[in-house]
Every structure is written in structure tokens, then in C-alpha cells.
Design a protein that fits this description.
Helices cover 60% and strands 5% of the residues. It has 24 helices and 9 strands. 43% of the residues are buried. Keywords: Cell membrane, Glycosyltransferase, Membrane, Transferase, Transmembrane, Transmembrane helix.
């Protein structure tokens, strides 16, 4: 007859930090749960549930670990394990054929990619120790990331995304004038690594700027997931470090920056290099070469991208706080168990932090931005946001569109489900991350490297979820997720290893199957993974264009002479949908371009408009009568009025101007 569960729980020494943290996390989840009744937001509705579930699983794991006598885990037969890599390679080949044949990454592409991703993750989770082959799995992971992203870059004319058009324009200016000073008017003048890389590669390989971008950064982005493996392998065994790399490679925002190749993408690569170097310095008896890699990686981030720089400083701050925790030694955290993590004295990072903060302030103070320095502009913008928009649960403030209007329009079941589909993969990984955090706060397991990951994740979550709850969006939270996924992937792998070693076999299988069968598809179907051709095309805008849409921009630019804003009257601005309007302004075809105002059930009242047939059946943004952007499908007669003349059309794009008879 089994022992009393209460008696078993009483033996768990409730003063252990991990036990206290699990109980405290469960209480926090219960306190946060009622917030859903005061504001409608996907994180408010889901994070308390995820946190509570993770804490319960960890407490259950503690209970079962007390009873465990063997390390029992379900494994695949050797014959199946040996056959799965072949299935993965065939699936990847099929993905290439499918994308090229259909001319885009369609729903069938993402379904097949989800299956292939599940086969990769399944090998990691369920291969026996004898059959586990880390090198072969890492090759599959990198090849998967390369195929899924590379096919999108290959079949899409032009570029994918919005900002990339601006950056390629800046690169063209450097090429045409032969000097970096050509972009001295822009904030990227002080952070030119991206533009210099594309320029140099174009000259070296004698290819177009587009090809140079794809042959350099486009290839490096999938390969950079190996840095997550290398960092994770400093903490856990090859199996779980490989899983961390797979979780990161599949992550939606990571995929997005592999498609939308801008300085953020390059900053992310340097950030991963710095994270690996930081973990290496804290985990081994490092040499001067190791610390030099850490220093150079941090400098490279500063000279590549401003937002990436700030995120890097948050990581360094987390590492420094972790150093202070272990030097001061509160709560007995210096009593370590060398059998769990290889331990060493905390690394003194004060000099590195001071150097990077100082260099950042110096560079930002010299960076031109909106008729002032970047540093002064950002500080002023942040202070204005706090004064004007900040407020508890003021979630709508600072959003790209009007959240209230969007909420009113969201009347169908699909409208309500899509936000949860977009965040489901993140929430699954967040749950594993919570478990990993609970595991490492045990006094005998805590050390500087893992505490750095914990604190970095906590700080970043404040920026991506905490501040937006108070209406503060100044830090561009959408840019943080890909960086956040790196420590989350490693902590998530630690969390899954923890559950694998402590839960009952049935629960272990259920958790690992969730990550195997659901996580890849959840990430691939999220909006950020398919910006080139959205899965939910009626609800998400497409950030890529057809050949005819690109040709129209060039033709309209030539026809109008690409006039500067100073050359135009106020009524000569060009109006079209968003995001198409960004293509005109960022390529210089017609700089004075804005989002058309199309009242509900009415027509636009602009003199110069451009309509594309995409607006009739896909998600594009127009302003309503109050000037608030919302997704609206419109036919050509709602932009081009009968009293206007059609001066350009190619079947897919039409430009209308005032008729000579009415002028």
C-alpha cells in the first residue's frame, strides 16, 4: 500500500528555494488570473495558466522524484531512428520542389514543414542514447532552417519585409558614392556593419546587392543556431543542447529575421556569439582569447544596430547582477553541487559592463536621428511616452493600429483564435522555461551562468510583456523576441530535461510529445514565420510583393519623376494601402506617400491614389474616417472615383489622378 502523499510532500523541505519558488509562482499565477476580466489581451489570458501549469508540473516532479528508482524513458526502436534522417532529407527536398512549383510557400508547404520539424524534434526527444547522433541532428536542424527560409527568399521577387528596402537604399548610396559618408544623414551612419557587409560582398562576388545579402546574412542566419547549441552544451548534455538549438531554429521571430534581413538580423547573430562567449567565460577557465571574443562580439553589436545594442546591455546587466548575487552570497546560493553544473568563482564583469555602456553612450551621442542625436531623441521620446501614455493595463497605447477598433471588428471565431495561434508556440516554450528556472534556483544548482540566463529572460520579459501592459512601447517589444528566444531555448531544454528525469513516464511522454507534435507547427503557423505569404491571408498583411506590384512602383516613379516632398503641393500626396505605401516611400519612387482613408462602406477622397487588386481579397490596412488603421478589403471603385483618370495600370496595380476635365 502506497505511502500518504501528504507525508511524502512533507519530506520535500519546503524551505528549499526551488520548492518555495514553485509555490510562489503558483500563487502569482492565481493572483494574475483575474486580470483577464479587466483587459482583453492574449498574454493576460494565457501566461498565468502557463505559469501555474509549469509550477504544478515541477511540484509533481519533486514528488515523483522522491519515489523514482530507475531512469525510465520511452525510446524509439533503432530501426526507426536510423530511418528518420532519410525521411527528413526527403521531406526537405519535397519542400523545395513544392515551393518552386507553387511559386510561394503555401499552406501545404507549412503543413509539410511542420511534419518534417516534428520528425527532427522527435529524434532528439526519443532516440536512445546508443542511437543519438548530435552531429547528424544538428545538420538536419541547420538544413531545415536553411530550406524553410531559403525557399521564401528564392521564390519571392524583391525583398521580404518593410525596413529592408530602406537599408538596401542606404547600401546603394554607399556603393554609388564609394564611401560611408553617403549615409551621414541617417542613424545607421554610426552603425554601418550591415551596409558595409552587403556592399563588400556585392563587390567581392560581383553580384547584385540582393544576391550579396542572401549569400551572406541569408546563409549565416540559419547557421547561427549552432551558437545556441554551443552555449547550451556548456550547461547540459548533447541531447538537450541539440534540443535547445532545434527549439530556437523553429522559433517564429527567429524565422522572421531570417526572412526580413536587416541590421536586426545581423545584430542577432552577434548577440548569439556574445551569449555563447559569455557562457563560456563563466563556465570554463577561460583564456584571453575567450574574453576577447566576448569583447569583440559586444562591440560588433554596438556597431550594427541600436535596439540590439540595448538588448545586449540588458544581457550584460543580468550577468553583472548574477555576479553580485554570488559574490554577496544571499540565501546560501554559494553552496553549490558540482555534480549538477561545473562550478567556478563568479567572473568579474564590471569592467566589461562599464566599457560597453560607455561606448554605447558615446556612439549614440554621435548618431544623427531626427534632427538631433539618437541618445537625446530616444530619451525624449521615452519621457513623453511615460507622461502621455503610461497607465496600468493601458495595453492599446502605442500600438501600430487602433486596438479598440480591432477588437470591435473581431467578431468571428477565427478573429478570436488567431492571436492564440500566433502565440501558442511561444507559450509552450515559456512553460518549459519556467520549469528550467525553477530547477536552477535550487541552492545546490545555482551558479552565475544559469542565473544569467534566468535574469536575462526575466528582464526581457519585462520589456516585451511588462511595459506594454502600462502603455510603454518605446522599446519596440516586437524586436526583442528573437533575442529572448536564445536564453529561453536553453532554459527550456533544461526544464524538459528536468521533467524527463523526474516525472512519471506517462507524463514525460505527454510533455515530450507536445513539443514534438505541436511546437514545430505552432511556430511555423505563427504570423512571423510566414510574412512572405500569410497562412491567414484575410487577417494578416503580406510583407512581400509580386513582380507586377514591384514593376508598378518603378513605373510610377519614372512617370512622376520621383518628386521630393518639397516639390509637391499638399494635395499631391500619393495614397494607397499599407504596407504597399511603404514601398513607394522607402524606394524613393514617390516619397510623399501615406495610407489611404477609406470610410466604412464609402470611397476615398484623395486626388492621387494607387490601387492594387490584392486589396480586394487579402488583408491590407486602410485608415477609417477617424484616421485609425484597420484591415479592410476594398475594390478599385472605393479608391478610384468616376471623376478621376486612370494614368497607369498593369492589370494588378492602377494609379488614378484628377481628370484634366475637373482640374
Amino acid at each position: 500500500m502506497g505511502r500518504n502523499p501528504v507525508g511524502r510532500l512533507s519530506e520535500l523541505r519546503p524551505l528549499r528555494l526551488d520548492t518555495v519558488a514553485a509555490i510562489g509562482g503558483l500563487l502569482i499565477a492565481l493572483v494574475l488570473f483575474p486580470l483577464r476580466f479587466f483587459a482583453s489581451q492574449v498574454y493576460l489570458n494565457t501566461v498565468p495558466v502557463v505559469l501555474g501549469t509549469a509550477c504544478i508540473l515541477y511540484l509533481v516532479r519533486l514528488y515523483y522524484q522522491q519515489q523514482a528508482t530507475d531512469d525510465i524513458r520511452l525510446t524509439l526502436p533503432s530501426r526507426v531512428t536510423m530511418a528518420l534522417p532519410t525521411a527528413v532529407f526527403l521531406g526537405l527536398a519535397a519542400l523545395v520542389v513544392l515551393a518552386v512549383h507553387q511559386g510561394a510557400r503555401t499552406i501545404s508547404f507549412f503543413v509539410l514543414a511542420s511534419v518534417v520539424g516534428a520528425l527532427v524534434v522527435g529524434q532528439i526527444c526519443f532516440a536512445s542514447d546508443r542511437d543519438f547522433n548530435a552531429r547528424l541532428l544538428l545538420f538536419q536542424i541547420v538544413l531545415f532552417a536553411l530550406v524553410v527560409r531559403g525557399t521564401a527568399l528564392y521564390v519571392t521577387p524583391g525583398f521580404i519585409g518593410i525596413d529592408v528596402w530602406t537599408h538596401m537604399g542606404l547600401t546603394e548610396q554607399i556603393v554609388s558614392q564609394g564611401r560611408v559618408g553617403a549615409i551621414s544623414h541617417d542613424k545607421h551612419y554610426a552603425s554601418p556593419f550591415y551596409h558595409l557587409l552587403v556592399t563588400a560582398s556585392s563587390m567581392l562576388f560581383d553580384v547584385s546587392l540582393r544576391s550579396a545579402l542572401y549569400l551572406t546574412l541569408g546563409l549565416v542566419m540559419p547557421i547561427s543556431v549552432l551558437l545556441v547549441y554551443a552555449g547550451g552544451n556548456l550547461l547540459v548534455s548533447q541531447r538537450w543542447a541539440t534540443l535547445a538549438a532545434a527549439l530556437y531554429a523553429l522559433a517564429s521571430h527567429v524565422s522572421m529575421w531570417g526572412l526580413h534581413l536587416i541590421p536586426t538580423s545581423m545584430g542577432l547573430v552577434f548577440f548569439l556569439a556574445m551569449l555563447y562567449a559569455l557562457l563560456r567565460v563563466m563556465r570554463i577557465e577561460y583564456t584571453t582569447r575567450d574574453f576577447l571574443l566576448l569583447l569583440l562580439s559586444s562591440i560588433a553589436v554596438i556597431l550594427t544596430h541600436q535596439v540590439s545594442t540595448f538588448i545586449m546591455l540588458v544581457l550584460l546587466l543580468a550577468a553583472f547582477v548574477a555576479q553580485l548575487v554570488f559574490e554577496i552570497g544571499p540565501l546560501g546560493l554559494t553552496r553549490l553541487d558540482a555534480s549538477v553544473f561545473r562550478t567556478k568563482k563568479p567572473v568579474n564583469l564590471l569592467g566589461l559592463v562599464v566599457f560597453n555602456v560607455g561606448l554605447t553612450i558615446f556612439v549614440w551621442s554621435l548618431t544623427p536621428y531626427r534632427d538631433d542625436s539618437f541618445l537625446e531623441t530616444v530619451l525624449r521620446y521615452f519621457s513623453e511616452t511615460v507622461k502621455e501614455s503610461a497607465g496600468f493595463l493601458n495595453i492599446a497605447s502605442g500600438s501600430s493600429g487602433d486596438a479598440a477598433g480591432a477588437a470591435e471588428a473581431a467578431t468571428t471565431l477565427l478573429d478570436e483564435i488567431i492571436p492564440y495561434v500566433n502565440e501558442f508556440g511561444f507559450l509552450i516554450l515559456l512553460g518549459a522555461t519556467f520549469v528550467g528556472c525553477l530547477y536552477i534556483v535550487h541552492r545546490r544548482r545555482a551558479e552565475q551562468s544559469v542565473f544569467t540566463l534566468l535574469l536575462a529572460t526575466a528582464f526581457m520579459l519585462v520589456f516585451v510583456m511588462g511595459f506594454p501592459m502600462f502603455g510603454i512601447h518605446s522599446f519596440i517589444p516586437n524586436r526583442w523576441f528573437a533575442f529572448l528566444y536564445a536564453p529561453m531555448a536553453i532554459l527550456g531544454a533544461i526544464g524538459l530535461r528536468t521533467l524527463d528525469r523526474g516525472l512519471a513516464p506517462a507524463l514525460v511522454v505527454a510533455v515530450l510529445l507536445l513539443f514534438t507534435l505541436v511546437y514545430p507547427g505552432a511556430m511555423l503557423f505563427a504570423t512571423e514565420s510566414n510574412i512572405d505569404n500569410p497562412v491567414f491571408e484575410d487577417h494578416q498583411e503580406q510583407l512581400a510583393y509580386t513582380e507586377s506590384e514591384l514593376a508598378a512602383v518603378g513605373s510610377i516613379g519614372e512617370m512622376t519623376g520621383s518628386p521630393d516632398g518639397d516639390e509637391l503641393r499638399r494635395d499631391q500626396g500619393l495614397y494607397t494601402d499599407h504596407p504597399y505605401q511603404t514601398l513607394f516611400s522607402r524606394t524613393g519612387a514617390y516619397p510623399s506617400t501615406d495610407i489611404a482613408t477609406v470610410p466604412a462602406g464609402g470611397t476615398a477622397d484623395h486626388n492621387y491614389v494607387v490601387y492594387r487588386t490584392t486589396a480586394a481579397n487579402e488583408a491590407v490596412y486602410f485608415n477609417n474616417a477617424d484616421g485609425q488603421g484597420r484591415i479592410e478589403q476594398a475594390t478599385v471603385d472605393r479608391l478610384c472615383r468616376p471623376d478621376q483618370a486612370t494614368v497607369y495600370t498593369n492589370g494588378d496595380v492602377t494609379m488614378c489622378t484628377p481628370s484634366p476635365a475637373t482640374e
